[in-house]
Amino acid sequence: MGSPSSTPTLAALAELIAVVARLRDPEGGCPWDREQTHASLVPYVLEEAHEVADAIRHGDDQHLAEELGDLLMQVVLHAQIASEEGRFDLAAIAAGLSAKLVRRHPHVFAEAEAADSAAVKQLWEAIKTEEQIQRQAANTTEAQTSASPLSDRLAGKVRGQPALAGAMTISKKAAAAGFEWDGIDGVWEKVHEELDELKEAVDEARASGDRAHAQEELGDLLFTLVNVARWCGIDPEAGLAGTNRRFLDRFSRVEAALGGDLGGRSIQELEGLWQQAKAQIRAENGSPASP
Predict the structure, then answer these.
(1) Is the pTM of this model over 0.70?
(2) Distance between CA 76 and CA 39 in Å, rounded?
(3) Which of 62, 128, 200, 245 lies at a C-alpha separation of 20 to 30 Å from 211?
(4) What are the sequence ranges of the domains in the chain?
(5) Burial class, 132, CB count within 10 angstroms (exposed 0-12 / middle 13-18 / buried 19+)
(6) Largest CA distance in the chain
């Protein structure tokens, strides 16, 4: 394989840029691609990023290469849109990224030292904090005297993240700043408190039809469960993704057992088939049956 700067790599990137530009061409391009804006493409950026993560979890190189291509397409398309408006292009994106990587890795490109990954992370965070302070100072005088610098940084950091990932980011940063329980028992107490409040809010919503409060309480419970995940050192996103896969595997077996038609079946029958599906999967995976 050639290096990233090899001729075949550059040629392939140049071809991709040309293809995307042709799709956006007002004369003979694709109507759908021509209509897209940065805002309209947001759902697709998120979807492609999640599909990349899913391909990684499944360990399928062919699928991963394809999904990374789809994600790269989003980057090139956004660059093309901005280029048409004279704001920036893919070259500016790449140059800015290279400069940022060099700046944030002084232990590689300069004289700083970092003995292990923990030291690298600490150095990285210090540099990012300094960059944020400089940006704030360049924007407004008010930003220089912000009374909530951590909150301001986190608001910008999580703005583009999925809610679950954003919750974990906020939880970690707030805990590192000292906003933390004394032990995990306090986290569990908060879980039960939020669960009780959600139950009460749901009952209110069923009576009044107003779901706004219930939605707020659901968010509070989910955020607290993210804190449980942080305390236990587990990834809530990976956990939920695994649950989705397991549910679909079991559900497909229930559907197959009923010939694809669930209509008119009792919950008792469906639950029985669900338990059978779980047992089948355990047996296939070589796991002992639960009592």
Answers:
(1) no
(2) 15
(3) 245
(4) 9-103, 108-141, 181-234, 238-284
(5) middle
(6) 71
The confidence band for 54, taking pLDDT boundaries of 50, 70 and 90, is confident
* Domain 9-103, CATH number (from 1.10.287.1080, 3.30.70.2120, 3.40.50.20, 3.20.20.150): 1.10.287.1080
Cα 34 from Cα 21, distance rounded (Å): 10
CA distance 164 to 16: 33
Look up tokens 């009374």; give the residue. Answer: 147
- Residue 187, CA distances (Å) to 7, 27, 217, 267 in order: 55, 59, 16, 34
HSE, CB side, 13 Å, CA atoms: give it for residue 21: 11
Distance set, CA 128 to CA 112, 136, 149, 166, 175 (Å) = 15, 12, 13, 18, 18
Please identify which residue in the block is written with the tokens 């009576």: 207
- Residue 220 burial by Cβ neighbours in a 10 Å radius (0-12, 13-18, 19+): middle
pLDDT band at 171 (very low <50, low <70, confident <90, very high): very high
